[in-house]
Amino acid sequence: MNMNTKKNVISTIAIIMIVMFIAMIINIALNLREFGINSAKTKASLVSQSVKNGLTAHMVNGIMENRDFYINETKNLSNIDDLWIIRSDEVNKQYGKGKEIVRDEIDSEVLATGKTIDIIEENFFGHSTYRITIPYKAEQTNSIDCLSCHETQVGNTLGAISMVMTMDDLKDASLEIMMYVSVISLILILIILFFVTNLITPYLAIFKSIKDVMKAAKKGDYSARILGVNKGEAKEVAHWINEHMNKLQNNLSVIEKKINIFLTAHKSDASLDPMLEVQNTVTRLADIYNFRKTIEHDERIEDVYKRFAHVLISKFNITNFNFLEADTTNKTTDIVYVNQEIVCDPVLKGCRADRTNTMVDSCQFQNVCEHSKNTDKFYICVPYSISNDLDFIVSIVTDTQEEHDRIRGLLPFINDYVGSSKPEIVSKKLMQILEKNAQTDPLTNLYNRKYLEKYIDGQLYNGKYKNIPCGLMMVDIDFFKLINDNYGHDIGDIAIKTISNTLMDVVDPTDVIIRFGGEEFIVVLTDCTEEKLQRKAEEIRIAFSQQKIQAQSESFSKTVSIGTSLFPNKDKSFWKYVKQTDIALYQAKHHGRNQVVRYKEGMEYHCIMQ
């Protein structure tokens, strides 16, 4: 490639110089030709004027019969091949016809028009001539008076002189000059080409080396260097480029080694250009950093899961997936995010990925997960250890083997996002636990009064149950103090747990149970009617009365009294209806206990009277 480039450059310069040389020779030849023609014209004009003056002198002196000698002598001058005189018809008429006759059409045309005509006959290898015919016109001056001898008028053509002059001597001189110029020019061209060749050779060499280095770099090989350039400015250029390539290669190597610190599943691809790989890696790091900075400002762990779900959908084009939380201490599993479908029941049956702490892939073994409900689907479940007592499981479901394989290839990228989310999941999960503990009764695991205040404002007044009637129940264990007095507080706690379990068994999952204080509970039945309120209250009363409370070697049963009211939820008057429910409970207690009493207007007065 270097030889071809050098040859092309030198050939181009040579062609340019040859073209310039040819143009110069042509210009010289044209100038010499023009010079020869002008010289011939000048000489012809001088000869013509000399002949004219000579003939005039012969006529004045009366020796016109000797004019032939004069003309012949003039004809013998150098470079004149032929010369003859022509007389006009006007002169022939006055003096009679002489020897000066018209030879050709050119003579006739000059006599007729009175204009000079010249013709050049050029032959590069033969004889070249210049023919010119010049008219003699009558004139009347102090020195010459043609009218004294001729019967004519000033300006009339009396005759003409025709000459044929050779141009071979000028042609030979021109050829000799062009030969000398050509030789000198060719010698100069060779000298210039020699110096140009020596001048450009180092630059062509470094150009080839740079091209090879860049070609290797384009393929991802940054180890190529410029070699063999050891002089002049080219040496400095080679040094600078090699130094730059060394820095680039070293920096890429350092970046490659440091990547694993930031990306948990980074793997170098030998077929990929290191520069492009670094670019892709930096892009991944920037995306992960932005993701982490975003979830740092989210308030709840549910928001973090939504962000992660958005990443799976928008960045990785994964649409069917679920997120699970596994409490490794209590051995429980909860579904915390559902995007489309769940192919198993991890809440009741547990999760194989969490139990084995390994990825579960339906393509590795048929029916690998015994709890899978849809054998036509492909699934992959990946467990991530978030903390000592919390695991996070990503479950992805696909319809085809091809899509499943694509998901497997994306797992390293998904791992990076989960890894960056761990600190936020831990901190927000801890806040969730603390908040739940602050709003939960530790004995029964039911919500407490603090949660009720939050629930009223967030769900009843402004949330999903706004303007929807709710049933209220105040539930109290009859003669609870006797249990503590007769059996002790441990048995009293068992009684409290028994009524709380009874309440959870009877009411719907959307209903809310609050341990309001001691043995007293508040139940909020969402989207409730009078009939539902009465039915649920009776179910609770009867179900609890059938429970056996174990106290050492004996068991006993207890009853509950329940007061109810229906909160229309049209204004922010929840506590007013709680008060009504409490009054109804008082009526149930006062009238024999183990009964359900619906609040009615005027009960406040009866309570005061009683």
Strands, total number: 16
Structural class: alpha+beta
* Largest sheet composition: 5 strands, antiparallel
* Outline: rod-shaped
Strand content: 15-25%
Radius of gyration: 61 Å
Low-confidence runs of at least 5 consecutive residues: none
Major beta sheet, strand line-up:
6-5-9-8-7
How many alpha or pi helices?
A: 17
Please tell me the overall pLDDT.
82
Alpha-carbon distance between the termini?
Answer: 116 Å
Helix content: 40-55%
Keyphrases for this structure?
610 residues; alpha+beta; 5-stranded antiparallel β-sheet; 5-stranded mixed β-sheet
Structure description:
The strands form four sheets. Strands 6-5-9-8-7 form a five-stranded antiparallel β-sheet. The protein has helices spanning 2-61, 67-75, 89-95, 105-113, 168-218, 232-262, 274-296, 301-314, 346-349, 352-356, 401-438, 449-461, 480-487, 489-506, 530-545, 574-590, 603-609; strands at residues 80-87, 117-121, 129-137, 157-166, 321-327, 332-338, 360-361, 378-387, 390-398, 470-477, 512-517, 520-525, 549-551, 554-556, 560-567, 596-598. The longest helix is centred in the first third of the chain and has 60 residues, at 2-61. It contains 17 helices and 16 strands. The mean pLDDT is 82. α8 (301-314) runs antiparallel to α11 and α14 packs antiparallel against α15 (530-545). A hairpin with a 2-residue loop joins β13 and β14 (554-556). 54% of the residues lie in helices and 17% in strands. It is α+β, with helices and mostly antiparallel strands.
